[in-house]
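Memo to structure team: turn this sequence into structure tokens by end of day. - J.P.
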Amino acid sequence: MKSRFLLLTLTSLAVSAHAGPIDYVAASNRFLSEELPKMEAAVAAKDRRYFTSGLERMKTFVNDHWADLDKFPACTNAITDFLIVGLCRISQPGTLCEPETFFPKFEGNLANCRAAAKADQGNPADASGAAELRR
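Reply from structure team:
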């Protein structure tokens, strides 16, 4: 009986530790909604210190959602690229990146990730919005 209880407990912990791909879309949107205003403030203040802690938070998020990263490339790319966009905006033009190609790519990924999160918000079982990200 004790071993059965232990097995059930461990199974429920494993299931809660990996909530699933639809939750990844929502979690990505929440992460970006929290981080982007902080990054915008750092860019406005030309404060590069934000990017060190932002990078650590981004790495933690990616590690926590490792199993879903390849399923939703728009969210994954938005998560991994937002710091680069901020650094590009702080840096002298042409020294770090090509804003005319990189920024639109980031904005497109961010828009697709947010659209999928919004579509999936009302019905977690409906993966229609998340399916858009697989293009």
